[in-house]
From TrEMBL:
Coiled-coil regions listed in the entry: none
Taxonomic superkingdom: Eukaryota
PROSITE patterns, sorted: GOLD
Protein name: GOLD domain-containing protein
Matching SUPFAM superfamilies: Supernatant protein factor (SPF), C-terminal domain
Organism of this sequence: Pomacea canaliculata (Golden apple snail)
InterPro entries according to UniProt: Emp24-like, GOLD_dom, GOLD_dom_sf
Membrane topology of this protein: Single-pass membrane protein; Single-pass type I membrane protein
């Protein structure tokens, strides 16, 4: 897919403790260039649910346009200039649900967006799947802890990017103010010297006339 660079890819499959219900989870961190719109598709079964969370962690004013579209082309949700949000999707139609991140309003700033999709689906297998051994339980706990760590890292990266952006803005503003002060001072010195220079030039002429 053109126009985006994959920064981090983490695909997680986990089985919940609910009978006949499984969860598919995927989280991505991508870079969307300025003036580019990127779309993704997720298959969701009918009468199933999915949760989509996204947040802009770097770039510009940390905002992005978002659109969610059903398989039949119906716009289910639309947002403009949002930094983050969590959406709940209840699928009344089975198929490929399309969600897009739109950065076409930005002419210079690329955006780094983290998003996560959690989709539940029913399993028609028998009750033997309910028998979960100790190793599987430990693996699920470790997986949950790892997901929590990844989420903390995303928030830390966003806060760090905000702090760095503010630091750069303060430095640029200070440099501009310093430049303006020096320029105004030089202009004042030049104007004062020119005034005294004109006075000295006119005095000899006046003496000769008298």
């Amino acid at each position: 897919m053109e126009g985006w660079k994959l920064v981090v890819v983490s695909v997680v499959f986990c089985t919940t403790f609910y009978r006949h219900v499984h969860t598919f989870e995927i989280d991505l961190t991508i870079e969307i260039r300025a003036g580019v719109k990127e779309c993704f598709w997720q298959h969701i079964k009918r009468e199933s649910s999915a949760e989509l969370e996204y947040q802009v962690i770097d770039g510009g004013d940390l905002d992005i346009d978002f659109t969610l579209q059903s398989p039949d082309g119906r716009i289910m949700h639309m947002e403009t200039r949002k930094t983050e949000n969590v959406l709940k999707v209840n699928a009344d139609v089975e198929g490929e649900y399309k969600f897009c991140f739109d950065n076409t309003f930005s002419r210079m700033s690329p955006k780094v967006v983290f998003f996560e999709i959690i989709s539940d689906y029913d399993d028609d297998e028998d009750d033997d799947d309910w028998n979960i051994n100790h190793e599987e339980v430990v693996g699920m706990v470790d997986l949950t802890v790892e997901e929590f760590k990844n989420l903390i890292k995303v928030h830390e990266a966003r806060d760090r990017n905000i702090a760095e952006a503010n630091f750069i803005r303060v430095n640029v503003l200070s440099a501009v103010q310093l430049f303006v002060m020096v320029t105004v001072g030089l202009i004042q010195v030049i104007m004062i010297r020119s005034l005294f220079g004109d006075t000295n030039k006119t005095k000899p002429g006046l003496k000769q006339k008298t």
